[in-house]
Specification:
By secondary structure, the protein is α/β, with parallel strands linked by helices. Helices cover 38% and strands 19% of the residues. It folds into two domains: 125 residues, Up-down Bundle (Four Helix Bundle (Hemerythrin (Met), subunit A)), CATH 1.20.120; 223 residues, Translation initiation factor eif-2b, domain 2 (Rossmann fold), CATH 3.40.50.10470. It is built from eleven helices and 18 strands. The longest helix has 37 residues. Bound molecules: 5-S-methyl-1-O-phosphono-5-thio-D-ribulose. 5-S-methyl-1-O-phosphono-5-thio-D-ribulose binds next to helix 2 and strand 11.
Amino acid sequence: MKIGGKPYRTIWRAEDAVRVIDQTRLPFELTEVDLNTAQDAAHAIKTMIVRGAPCIGATAAYGLALAMREDASDANLDAAAKMLNATRPTAVNLAWALNEMRGVLAPLPPAQRVNAGFKKAADIADADVAQCEAIGNHGHAIIAKLWEQKGKPKQLNILTHCNAGWLATVDWGTAIAPIYKAHDAGLPIHVWVDETRPRNQGASLTAFELGSHGVPHTVIADNTGGHLMQRGQVDMAIVGSDRTTATGDVCNKIGTYLKALAAHAHDVPFYVALPSSTIDWSMSDGMRIPIEERDAGEVTHIAGRDAAGKLTTVRIVPETSAALNVAFDVTPARYVTGLITERGVSPASRDGLLKLYPERAKDAA
Ligand code: MRU
């Protein structure tokens, strides 16, 4: 997608390095960071310079390619994969991308691993772009149908949580791809953007993306969605996912579950958009998904830009209060209207997913 008219991806090859957009500086500063080693890639994932499940996967893939450039031995292939896999626990795209990389690299002699690693990482990134665009097309069809069913209103209000836009993937996004497609096709989309405390990926990243693309949107405090649904001001919700089980339970950014409950109570369609790299075929119960717990400082403090234009962080909680920072939650499949994947839309169920991915029947828990 474009920033200031210039096309960007979140991650790309630049000279000898792998370059990423530093998402911790957005929306106020557009900074690019070079990753030169596997450690740089691990650091970028851990500190959330890059974040969002598919973007984490692509970064880990390039991280393994960088590791092969340092030392292409079997021992380093194992060690680097282990180090990268330990950076964040919830998004399954990370383990998926590392497995894909190892599947290509492990059988090769070390001398061939560098070129093969960068090629495979580029293939993973390109495949993500194609999958997200396909998700956009399938989701656009749902939005267009809803708009017709509602009598072609002057404004169709879509609520989203966190950032599942192009910054969270390599390009296009998952939940936001259908919104871009619908907006570009002339549908009168307006997006309610959940701020998404504690790290505010909605307020900082989704709002930045939508603004850069000219999509009308309004940032709301996380607690506002229920009220808007009760008043009929939300026509549908679309969110992304960090890991979806073979049975359609959806793990996503903390707060997603509450929005799904509110949507269910008010008959608001609640869709989840995800590429197949986000499906954990080995899991049948969302309650078993490892949930990341992050530093409490993200809850006790808030970051922003002060009146002098300086990026700053301030404390908002008493010094003596404890804080808990659970980064994700699980929405049971029964609250999900449909899963929008690159192969089409399915019910959130094992049968539904296997109709789209019959080749995974042998793996599906
Ligand atoms: O902690 P983050 O910012 O990595 O969490 C991101 C999300 O929860 C996204 O909704 C999810 O990764 C889907 S991204 C297309």
